[in-house]
Amino acid sequence: MKNFLIVTITGVIREAYFLFNEMAPYLLFGFLFAGVLRVFIDTKAVTKHLGHNNFLAVIKASLFGIPLPLCSCSVIPAAMALRREGASKGAVLSFLISTPTTGIDSIFATYSLLGGFFAAYRVIASFITGVLSGAAANFILKETDNKPAGKDMPKCGICPRAENHSHHIRQKIKGVFSYAFGDLLRDSGPAFIAGILIGGIITYFVPKEFISTYLGSGPQAMVIMLLVGIPMYVCATASIPIAAVLMMKGMDPGAAFVFLAAGPATNIVTMTVVARNLGRKALLVYLGAIAISSISLGMALNKLYSHFYHEKAFNFIMHQRILIPREMQVLCSIILFLLILYNSLKHPGKMVSVEE
């Protein structure tokens, strides 16, 4: 029994280690880029464009949300802040969907395990889903153009001060690293490790024949992934190794995509906040847009895969990635793991508050 446990634990860790190595270099770069976005983007200027109850505001909200590295819980205070500053319900719903399903860190992570085509498709699908949700909200939830609820200015990306001020370039660079490898990594690091371990467990325990036979293809697989993903808390980055392993075991890319779309975009906390702050009709629009878009886009992805799968050129593009030497992957894995461990020990149990 003891030997069985040792062999099992070793096997799971080995599989998780391989996944971690593939993703670590891209994640480090993604986190760094996210820090740059955080410090150098003027959120006050952005919110001025989101207060109108029109289609353009919805498009802007979705485009603004795509690169932001916020998970399905940390996006809540950002979305509610946009609402308080005057963003329309349609723009808020668009932002709530497009933001947690992508993020610059998640884009690079998707690229690392699923290839450039899947990463690009995920970004486009996130934009479409966000726009569909916002447009439906504009049509169903009639409201006039909004005015900011208060006079509070958005907080600085470096310090808590809200009034107009500036920072020296050294302070900005320090702010980039502090947010990228401090705040952001503290919030998403533990969830990412959990996702990697779940991926390792699935790889080690679940036979390929089981996935391909009982959960591999067809609309039923997409519906199951949708029902699993909607109430579950899983961030965009942590969901990637799980989806990648399920695809390697025989699941259709469309079903894996539904999990990647529905899982990060929703959870019980987000649904509760949407119902309380935007109303039950807004919650129905929010869930309906995610369900319809994820399954429709999942079917479209399956069509693309089935049509191009045997063509070498497309297969090359789909899986093409920058080749990173194994030694560099291991070094990045060590750095990323130590940063996650350091942030977890420095701020144990810290959670993102809706009121932040």
Show the helix and strand layout.
Elements (H helix, E strand, L loop, with lengths): L1 H39 L2 H5 L7 H11 L9 H10 L4 H13 L2 H37 L28 H37 L2 H7 L4 H11 L9 H10 L4 H13 L2 H11 L1 H29 L3 H8 L6 H21 L10
Helix pairs in contact: 1-6, 1-7, 1-15, 3-5, 3-6, 4-5, 5-6, 5-11, 6-13, 7-10, 7-15, 9-11, 9-13, 10-11, 11-13, 12-13
Give an overview of the whole structure.
The chain has one domain. The protein has 15 helices and no strands. With 356 residues, the chain is an all-alpha fold. Helix 7 runs parallel beside helix 10 (239-248). It is 74% helix and 0% strand. The chain is globular, with a radius of gyration of 20 Å. The longest helix has 39 residues, at 2-40.
